[in-house]
User: Fold these one by one.
Assistant:
Number 1:
Amino acid sequence: MALSIHVNGGTEPKQFQEPVENPEFDYSQRGQWLRAAVLGANDGLVSVSSLLMGVGSVKQDVKAMVLAGFAGLVAGACSMAIGEFVSVYTQRDVEMAQMKRDGEKRSPVVDENDPKMEKKERLPSPGLAAGASALAFSVGAVLPLLATAFIRDHKVRMAVVVVVASVALMVFGVVGALLGGAPVAKSGGRVLVGGWIAMCITFGLTKLISLNGM
């Protein structure tokens, strides 16, 4: 709303415009990197924790658990990187093809100020997405691995895996909710319960197979 103020000696009122409030932040802009980071960290944590629980259900040797966990970390990080690279590259190719079709329909002349050119510069980087996913997976996976590497007592080691995984899952869930503007309690609880289910299933099925002599 504009306010008119008359100044002595002036013939025309001066207009003062009230400051316009900044629009709310669009959390969807964080969607891509947030999804990759949270997904990678959660996958690393749940995968390696479940793997440690599975191996620990049939083996009490700490070396066997650490080696299995390390192999899971490396394999999972590579898998996440390759999967994210292919996914983002495919998305990039689709968007580039669509922009090319739109450009051919409008004008063959390239305009540097065209919004299409700006959109092209903002396309996601497959290499960056792959590196971020691999790093996030490794960060999540290394937590339970380091927590169990120096514990000799088998029962204590298994309990530590569950505790460390539970705390980390809650932290990842809360951080993801805060960065994405989602409900904190619901997001953290969903991530925590999902991790528990994965660890219980892996532990139970591995134990069952070992009892059957396989």
Note: Helices lie at 31-56, 62-106, 115-121, 126-149, 154-180, 184-211.
Number 2:
Amino acid sequence: MTCRDCGIGPYGAQPSGLFLCDQCGHLLDLDTAYFDPAEVVVVDTDGNLLHFLSPYACLKWMDDISDLPTGDWALAMQALAQFKRAAKELEAALRAGLPYSTPA
């Protein structure tokens, strides 16, 4: 997860329970930080803070994209870019071991 202040460094776990940006020194407290409800926040074995869009949210996003109107080249290219991004997010979540779940 990239630092919310400098946009460069990753956050690493600290003994205090906070997460420190390796680049600028910003401290992040998960108790006061906002994450999208569709995101899953984890700490890897190296102590780095990671976040993923849940597989369910990725698949829902893909379904929503399929409802975009057709016939407009610009909208079609935008939809394709969004679909590719959703697919990459889904792949990252599954590689991280998040359970696969489909929208109802």
Note: The helical segments are 55-66, 73-95.
